[in-house]
Recover the amino acids of this structure.
């Protein structure tokens, strides 16, 4: 198992380097931006600007700048926000937790909806559950999350007054768990719904595949209860492709979180990104891009681990 | 040749048996024709402001009412539809033009080029595409062109991966060997021997990618970073709906573009599913 984990980690390193290089190169070409701010200030002379550029190392060639940036990054320093002057790393860490919470809750919601539907529709093909899950799939893949979010807001907050319209806690009140859950409910449902459709299909087709296996027939002929056969023999073995799919879907979810966060004013990375874009706050924009990519890499590693736990063949090879 | 024709006929027959796919196709044609033909016939265009009707409810004058700045919602809906379909189709074409050659050549020649292309897909697929798109749009400034190009360029990975997989599986086949043995050039082997066997699944992916490109464009416009006012897009019509008062009492402003998006994407997905089932009944999900 240790060797397996190590191998996965080693594979993630070049991808990580590639991501930082790509993002840095894009920013490098767009850059000049810290100087643009100075240039637009009439009180600062061109000589002064040139001195500042020298000081910030902006005259160095690309690779030198990249290496010094990377050194800073590994030391936990991603520069300072043009907008607030605060350390980018601190801002990212503050916004990371809400986004991770939202994403994981969305996965949970999606699983809670998809597993019963997927399993039932595989067990009773062409039955009523099959139709219901088919309708769910099509609706989920065809409804943009921002529209669903507005519909939810309109029904549950505006018309019925049941749930808060946005934020993470009630403003000016204690930050309690129940308040958090009330605020989390709609965004998690909206974000989760985007993956329900394909998740149902994956569970269903994976179950159908396993149900044809000999060991399932053996289990049944041993006289095992149907419930045991379904949960222990069929479901467990059909989980492997489903877990892979969940892992692949995480980047999409983290991206989708931007839109959902905007609809429900959820104080996560997406929100921070949008604020930074409107003020052209490049260090933060760059930071969010890299931190989400790193989060995706970590999630992928975790899925690989779960994968190894589920299927002994993988970790031993 | 005649065998090819029967194959094609069978394909069409199987597609037509799928009711949802046919409904989807009919709806798509209707939507496309409507957004292309009707707008010039309307009394208002997308940016025209009616100064006596701000946020007016639907009436004989404005069939779907007006928005907060007095622009006709129906006109915006139809012009917006043009934008959505345009961005969806054109950006997908860009993705295909970049992704297919890269994936194909990577699988055909292998070696360092293969490593380069496949590592690149890894990197692009690890950064959440919405974030990367936002990042790029923030640098180049939001406009229809930027949005189309950025969505198009970033869509290449899926096509590259797909064709790469297919070509890897056909490149060892005997008929390829045969082609090489009779001295065919690489370009002939790729276009005559490999592509025809790999192209069908690509069409299915194209259909689904158009749907997701439309969703991406509308999401960007919804965030205010896509199509800019006064030009209309289904997404930026919803951008203005992010206020309680509009959600509460001005349903005509945000329900029509949202529903139009849903119906369009649903139709594309119906067609995509129909194509997949008709192409290979074995892998069909339903």
């Amino acid at each position: 198992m240790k060797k397996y984990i190590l191998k996965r980690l080693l594979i993630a390193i070049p991808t990580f380097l590639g991501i930082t290089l790509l993002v840095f190169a894009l920013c490098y070409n767009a850059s000049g931006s810290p100087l643009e701010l100075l240039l637009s200030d009439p009180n600062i002379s061109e000589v002064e600007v040139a001195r500042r550029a020298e000081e910030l190392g902006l005259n160095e060639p690309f690779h030198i700048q990249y290496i010094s940036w990377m050194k800073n990054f590994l030391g936990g320093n991603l520069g300072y926000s043009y907008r607030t002057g605060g350390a980018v790393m601190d801002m990212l860490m503050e916004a990371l937790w809400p986004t991770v919470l939202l994403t994981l809750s969305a996965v949970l919601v999606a699983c809670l909806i998809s597993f019963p539907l997927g399993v039932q529709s595989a067990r009773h093909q062409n039955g009523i559950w099959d139709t219901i899950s088919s309708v769910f799939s099509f609706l989920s893949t065809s409804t943009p999350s921002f529209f669903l979010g507005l519909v939810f807001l309109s029904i549950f907050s505006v018309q019925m007054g049941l749930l808060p319209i946005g934020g993470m806690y009630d403003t000016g009140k204690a930050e309690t768990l129940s308040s958090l859950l009330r605020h989390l409910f709609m965004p998690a449902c909206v974000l989760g719904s985007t993956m329900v459709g394909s998740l149902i299909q994956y569970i269903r087709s994976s179950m159908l595949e396993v149900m044809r296996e000999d060991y399932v027939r053996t289990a049944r002929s041993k006289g095992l209860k149907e419930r045991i056969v379904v949960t222990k023999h069929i479901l467990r073995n059909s989980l492997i492709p489903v877990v892979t799919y969940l892992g692949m879907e995480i980047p999409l979810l983290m991206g989708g979180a931007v839109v959902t966060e905007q609809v429900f004013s959820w104080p996560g990375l997406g929100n921070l990104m949008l604020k930074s874009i409107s003020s052209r706050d490049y260090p933060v924009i760059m930071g969010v891009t890299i931190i989400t990519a790193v989060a995706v890499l970590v999630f992928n590693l975790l899925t690989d681990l779960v994968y190894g736990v589920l299927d002994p063949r993988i970790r031993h090879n | 040749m005649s065998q090819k024709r029967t194959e094609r006929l069978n394909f069409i027959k199987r597609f037509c048996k799928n009711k949802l796919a046919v409904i989807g196709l009919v709806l798509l044609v209707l939507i496309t024709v409507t957004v292309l033909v009707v707008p010039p016939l309307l009394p208002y265009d997308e940016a025209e402001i009616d100064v006596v009707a701000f946020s007016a409810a639907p009436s004989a004058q404005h069939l779907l009412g007006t928005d907060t700045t007095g622009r006709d919602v129906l006109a915006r809906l139809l012009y917006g539809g043009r934008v959505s379909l345009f961005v969806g189709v054109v950006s997908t074409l860009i993705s295909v033009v970049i992704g297919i050659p890269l994936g194909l050549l990577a699988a055909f020649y292998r070696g360092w080029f293969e490593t380069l292309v496949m590592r690149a897909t890894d990197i692009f697929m690890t950064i959440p595409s919405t974030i990367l798109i936002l990042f790029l749009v923030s640098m180049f400034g939001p406009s229809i062109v930027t949005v189309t190009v950025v969505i198009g360029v970033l869509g290449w990975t899926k096509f590259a991966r797909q064709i790469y997989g297919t070509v890897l599986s056909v490149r060892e086949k005997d008929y390829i060997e045969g082609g090489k043995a009779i001295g065919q050039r690489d370009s002939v082997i790729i276009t005559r021997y490999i592509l025809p066997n790999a192209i069908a699944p690509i069409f299915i992916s194209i259909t689904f990618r158009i749907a997701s490109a439309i969703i991406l464009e509308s999401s960007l416009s919804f965030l205010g970073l896509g199509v800019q006012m006064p030009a209309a897009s289904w997404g930026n019509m919803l951008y203005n709906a992010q206020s309680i008062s509009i959600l509460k009492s001005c349903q005509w402003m945000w329900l029509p573009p949202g529903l139009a998006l849903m119906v369009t994407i649903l139709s594309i997905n119906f067609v995509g599913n129909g194509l997949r089932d008709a192409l290979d009944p074995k892998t069909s999900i339903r």
